[in-house]
Specification:
Distance between the termini: 35 Å
Oligomer: single chain
Strand content: 5-15%
Order of helices and strands: HHHEEHHEEHHHH
Shape: elongated
Number of helices: 9
Length: about 210
C-alpha cells in the first residue's frame, strides 16, 4: 500500500499539512496490520504484546516531525506500545542514535536481568535507549509485573522438567521452547532466563 500510495500521500500532505486525515494516513488499517505481523504483534522496544486492549502505535523510527519525507515510507515505520512510543517521542541524533531492532544486533548490546534490562558496557546506543524507555527501572510497574508473570511460568516449566522419566517432560520443554521463539511475548527476556537456569533448553543465546 505504501509503495503504491506513499509518494502521492506525501504530496497531498505537504500541500495541506493541517489536514489530520492526510497527516496520519500511515495509520491506515492495512499498514498497521502489516506492521503487526512483521513485529510478531509485539512492541519492538519492550516486547509487550500488542492486542485488542493495547493496539500499539505506528512508530516512525526517524521522527516524521523532523523527516517529513519519511512520513509514509515503509522502512521508517514499525510498531511500539503507547508507553515506549511516548518515551521515545521525536528523539533523533546521528551522534547517539536510538537503537534500531532492524539494524542493530540488539541481543549483543542489551542484557536482560530478570524483568529489568541493562546494556553491555560501552554500548552507548543501547544504554541511551534503555534509559530513555526506562526499561532498567521499576518505574513501569505494569510492564515489570507482566515480565515477572512470564518468568514465573518459565521457572515452573523448568522445575517440572527435571524428571527425565516423566512422560510430560517433553511437552513442558516444548512449551518452554515456544516461549523463547521470536514472536513470543518477552522472548528475549525468557531466553536469557533459560540460558542461565537450563542451558540445554535454551533456544539460543546472545
Amino acid at each position: 500500500m505504501l509503495v503504491e500510495n506513499g509518494a502521492r500521500w506525501l504530496q497531498e500532505y505537504l500541500a495541506d499539512p493541517t489536514n489530520e486525515t492526510k497527516r496520519k494516513r500511515y495509520r491506515h488499517d492495512d499498514v498497521r496490520a502489516a506492521l503487526r505481523e512483521e513485529t510478531g504483534w509485539k512492541c519492538v522496544f519492550c516486547e509487550s504484546r500488542i492486542g485488542h486492549n493495547t493496539p500499539g502505535d505506528v512508530e516512525h523510527k526517524k521522527p516524521a516531525s523532523k523527516f517529513q519525507e519519511l512520513r509514509f515510507v515503509w522502512d521508517n515505520l514499525t510498531v511500539a506500545c503507547t508507553e515506549c512510543n511516548r518515551r521515545k517521542s521525536d528523539y533523533h541524533s546521528d551522534e547517539l542514535p536510538f537503537i534500531d531492532p532492524y539494524l542493530h544486533a540488539v541481543e549483543e548490546d542489551v542484557v536482560h536481568c530478570g524483568p529489568l534490562v541493562t546494556w553491555r558496557i560501552g554500548a552507548a546506543s543501547a544504554e541511551f535507549s534503555v534509559r530513555k524507555l526506562e526499561l532498567h527501572l521499576y518505574d513501569r510497574p505494569a510492564l515489570i509485573q507482566q515480565k515477572l508473570d512470564v518468568l514465573a511460568r518459565a521457572r515452573a516449566l523448568i522445575d517440572l522438567s527435571a524428571n527425565d522419566a516423566d512422560p510430560l517432560t517433553p511437552v513442558r520443554l516444548d512449551e518452554l521452547r515456544k516461549m523463547q521463539e521470536k514472536n513470543a511475548e518477552f522472548s528475549a527476556c525468557v531466553r536469557a532466563f533459560v540460558a542461565v537456569l537450563l542451558p540445554s533448553a535454551a533456544l539460543w543465546t546472545a
